[in-house]
Amino acid sequence: MVDLVTQGAEIIKKNMQVKAIIFDCFGVLYVDTTKAYFAEFPDKRTDLQAINVACDRGLMSREDYYEAVSTITGQPRAAVDIAFKREHTLNQAALTYIAHSLKPSYKIGLLSNIGRDWIQDFFDEYQLHELFDVTVFSSSEGILKPDVEIFRRTAERLKVLPEECIMIDDTLANCDGARLAGMQAVLYQDFETMKQVLQRLLQQNVH
């Protein structure tokens, strides 16, 4: 298993205080439905993962799977059906964490390889305009992650140094690009792991 703490901590600048946290969109804030829904029930994680494996192995029908999710989470079956209707959905657990735990203390950025027209619809649909201090999109910049320049531009617009930023991304190459730009980085796998790693990184920085 990848040591995510080591990945993020290996370039901590001991004399730098983290001032900004930057998030990717797809794979982090907008994820597949299963990950997003399961993140709302961290205490049920083991049981939910077990039925996922059973379903992937062909040991459980879709109908039985939904029934099992309903039983484990205590949610009505109708609510489960609605939650799994979309292939991808908003990572509500992550957005709540950003709004309540991170934004009061840190600048929040969004950096994504995406077309601006699509992201505007995304922001409008979910009312995300107030959550981010800065948004940077590849389509507007003419460069893509993992180019180090796009990470540097994001830091500049946040009015911080790259060394004062942590980048959260689900792609290893993008995390490597962020590190080359001078940032710390966390490779996103799931919400609970990201939260734990990020909190540990923040605690290791000078405040």
What can you see in these coordinates?
- The protein has 207 residues and is an alpha/beta fold.
- The chain has eleven helices and seven strands.
- A five-stranded parallel beta sheet has the order 5-4-1-6-7, sandwiched between helices. Strands 2-3 form a two-stranded antiparallel sheet.
- Helix 10 links the parallel strand 6 and strand 7.
- The two termini are 31 Å apart.
- About 4% of the residues have low confidence.
Short description:
By secondary structure, the protein is of the alpha/beta class.
Describe the secondary-structure layout:
Layout: H1 4-9, E1 20-23, E2 30-32, H2 33-38, H3 45-56, H4 62-73, H5 77-83, E3 88-90, H6 92-102, E4 107-112, H7 116-126, E5 134-137, H8 138-141, H9 148-157, E6 165-169, H10 172-180, E7 184-187, H11 191-204
Parallel strand pairs: 1-4, 1-6, 4-5, 6-7
Antiparallel strand pairs: 2-3
Question: Major sheet: order of its strands?
Answer: 5-4-1-6-7
> What is the architecture of the largest domain at the second tier of CATH?
3-Layer(aba) Sandwich
Contiguous helical run count: 11
Q: What would CATH call the homologous superfamily of the largest domain?
A: HAD superfamily/HAD-like
What summary fits the major beta sheet? 5 strands, parallel
CATH topology call of the largest domain = Rossmann fold
Based on DSSP secondary structure assignment, what is the total number of beta strands? 7
Mean pLDDT: 85
How much helix is in the residues?
Answer: 40-55%
Order of helices and strands: HEEHHHHEHEHEHHEHEH
